[in-house]
Amino acid sequence: MGRPKKVTATSTYVPKKVFGLDGTFDILSEQNFLWDAVIKKVARISRVYGFNRVETPFLEDVRLYENFYKNSPKLLHSLVTVEMAGNKAALRSAFLPSVLRAYYQYRLFDQPAINKWFFSGPAVTAEEDGKQINSDFEFGFEVFGNFTHLAEAQVIGAVWELLKSLGLKDLSLEINNIGQEECQNTYENALQSFLSAKKYELCDECNEHLTGRVLNVFRCDNLDCQAIVSEAPTVLDFLDQDSHKHFTSILEALDELSVPYQLNPYYAGPDGHSKTNIVVKAKIKGETEIVGEGGYHEQLMQNLCGKNITCFGFSGSAKKIYDILDLAKTEVSKDLKSDVFLVPLGDLASKRSLRLFRDLTTEKISVYDSFGLSGVKNQLKQAEMYRAPIALIMGQKEAADEMVILRDVKSGMQEVISYDKIVEEVKKRLGK
């Protein structure tokens, strides 16, 4: 008989904890009321101004971005790419390429209607060395079709109302008109001639712009470069009659909307923008930050599909808005208001309350339930916190007898009502 085998205790496997990637962030709206307020405000303003939500994939064929950034190839280095079945795809670095692609892919330009879209969601870019990811939460508005300057003003008005309603301070909206392609070409030649005589005073990047999109010198943060370009001729002197008329009309429309603006003849948006260009800036601890930019995007659409399609829009960073509000210690209370608070007591009552929840929400009555809490006292405290005027209490006896206790949360008065009449009674008391 051999010796018994030694039994060793097996060690319990403890998995290595995995956290989010550096440069990314989570949005927990249940705990972070400020984020919840920003996201909900974007959706609400969009509805008020008649913009319909558009959702685009987080992955796109990398060729879409290659076409979009055709004139700014350096921006392709910021893409996060993956290989899929022999094809190269890119994670969303900005919404606009996908939004424009969706519009022409579904041939909406064949329809006479004006399309007003809004979008919001995460976007990611990579640092030049590829070792760091930067994530953002972008939002924006875009209008397509045969629209007038009034629709253009609505986009700007929606942006301004959104930012002001969130409580952002020290905001400025700068506006310029850089003309159509012919105006731009004439002006860029004059600007290039002016700056070439001062090229030794410009930074290396601005000297590169002299052989590319010379308007990009206006986007340089170098103080010496800014001083030089401030003496350059302005694009407004090179606009044709139609461009002047259009610009005057949009400024008058903004006056009607009471949107304050600053005319900045030395502002030019990113490559591919034309005609009306806007930028919204905010001051943070003495530093000026760009919240978002907008303009006409016909040139970008031409790069993507070869068609001349009129489109105007604005793209901004909700992450930057959040950071500004958070730095200012903006306090936001979560919107907890509901019409009815359900108070089930016991297993049978909880099951019956699921049916009651369904019947109430079917009638467009907002309901908050707390099936995890025990005790009527705790649940009624929750009802007060959620500002529900009515609490519906169901214990084991009420559940068995198909009855519900209706309680007026403010007065504390309550009565027992049969289940088949409770929904109509609630509607009556809510005035619905």
Overview of this protein structure:
This protein has 432 residues and is of the alpha+beta class. The chain folds into two domains: 33-180 and 240-327, 2-Layer Sandwich (BirA Bifunctional Protein, domain 2), CATH 3.30.930; 340-430, Rossmann fold, CATH 3.40.50. It is 36% helix and 23% strand. It contains 14 helices and 16 strands. The strands form three sheets. Strands 1-5-6-11-10-9-7-8 form an eight-stranded mixed β-sheet, sandwiched between helices. Strands 13-12-14-15-16 form a five-stranded mixed β-sheet, with helices on both faces. It has a three-stranded antiparallel β-sheet with strand order 2-4-3. Strand 9 and strand 10 (287-296) form a beta hairpin. Helix 1 (33-48) crosses helix 10 (318-327), helix 3 packs across helix 9 (298-305) and helix 4 (149-165) packs across helix 8 (241-256). The protein starts with 32 loop residues before the first helix and ends with a helix.
